[in-house]
Amino acid sequence: MAVTWKRVISSGGGLCVSRLSCYIPSLQLCSSRGKHSVPWYLEHLSAQDKARIVRMSGSREDRGSILSNPGVTNVSKLSREDLCKHLAQNVIYREGPLVAISKPQGLTILGSPEEEVSLVSVLPDLQDLLQVKSELHVVRAAPKESSGLVLLSSCHVTTKHFEDFYMNCRKAHRSFMTFCAVTLGVPSPAEGEVSVAVKEKEIAGQILTIPVWDPSKGSLERREVKKTGTFYEVLASRHGCSLLQLQPTTVFRDQLLVHCTLKFCPVLGDHKYSSRVAKILGKDIYVPLEIAVPKTQVVDKKILQKMNFSSQLVHLMPLHLHLQRLLMPHDPPGKYPALLEAPPPPFFQRTVELLGLKTDSPSSKMFIL
User: Is 317 exposed, middle or buried (0-12, 13-18, 19+ CB in 10 A)?
Assistant: First the structure.
């Protein structure tokens, strides 16, 4: 039976190898070829067809998503010993009583009855591993959901000095923390401030942070509602995504995630608040809070393709929010560096590369290392 090679090229441009037996029943596939040999089916294709197949297949490394290449640290699967080793390997600063580490996302600071492991719970083990003589305690730390800097101290006098410094920064409306984030969407304008009052409210059985557009004076005085602010800047944007610099001037639970949704730019991997933003006929809209319950984030197929990410695994997309910089006290002069800096985790940097968001502009206030 005569068969042309065009009949085994599928309509999608790939090869339907499994159907070759329908055309050539007696065909035997040879398994003795060397791993560098040209596949038998490519020998008979035109140069154009060969180029198309190579583009579609790519190398295994290029096809790997951030879940497998370079991978995401899963805190829940680490033993206490392995977690301590991971933290010790990510010490970025150590001087006198101070120790700064870069923690993985998902590691809670104080913990709860439902969580077996927290940063505080492993501090005694970390102290022994790092051979710190006095007890370590937390000065400032990235929240559970994000990765990034954790500043520890073994001296209560030093801790008090740092806490007073950060309190004065908040009173002066001055940011002392700098986060980087990858977002779905590009905020307009490209630089500005999100300023909104917020409060916590139970929705669908979960405690969530919601904006309060017209807070009463009494609610603010009773601290039922708190005014919050975040300065933001677009460092790079492409394919409808952004690399943002976020500098909060206040501290409130999930503040940055909520502020990003208010700019129609949910953080990539935010399965908690991203449902508050949707599109109708290409226009951004806010979904009513009562029905915008936490659920797996909706990510455009084109973005997933660029990230080599399967749509079935979107629920495993890690949150791309990282505490990268922490301001240090300037007194006494010369005692501390001006700031501490921790590079984003490998999966974050890989996403930045895949989405074409890498920036090294001298005018930028942040650099992805």
Answer: buried
